[in-house]
Amino acid sequence: MKLPTIEQVEKAIKIPVIRWEGNCSGIAQGLLNAGLVKGKFCYGVWWGPISDKSSFRGRPFTHHAWIELKDGKVVDPTRWAFEGIKPYIYIGISGKEYDKGGNRLREKYMRPCPEYDPIDKKIPIKFSPQLKTLVLELLNQPPVFTARQLSWLASLPTDYLEPYTRDVYEALIKVGLTCLIPIDNRRDILGNRGQYKNSDKNMARTG
User: Fold this and answer.
1) Domain boundaries, the chain
2) What is the pLDDT of residues 23-40, one digit of tens each?
3) How far is it, in rounded angstroms, from Cα 43 to Cα 77?
């Protein structure tokens, strides 16, 4: 695809490039809102190199936003901020430096599944037979599903739930547990569906 120039983006989103650094979400969303790029907004973690010339120097990783195209490539209007070079708009493959939803970071710090505790709140959630087999295996075969274990399930990196990630999320939403799902993963898998509503009554009692 033909990318807009820095000048065209500045004019369309009304934000000068001097203010782009540290505003990756606003700039990426601005390109989409202005129709300069057609793709999906992504937010996660940047694991790529960070130059000593960058204002982010010294960080092993940092949160970041970019645009994902239908062919899987990335459009990143603020990648240059990590590279410490002149502003440009990057387009290329989505390599390991782009961690959509922060799932690599989530995996790095994930804890084992909580043990089943009969005093925990029980959640009457329904899964399809195939999905139930996967969920039971992940949760160490509990006799019933508890709020604490479902919270752990919802927070898993999406790769752990494939090919049933969407089904798991939809099942959690049906029982009012939308807020247990990390928002960046929910947006990636479900788009605008399943947004938190006041009807998510179970959230107040899952602690």
Assistant:
1) 6-100, 109-205
2) 999 999 999 999 999 999
3) 13
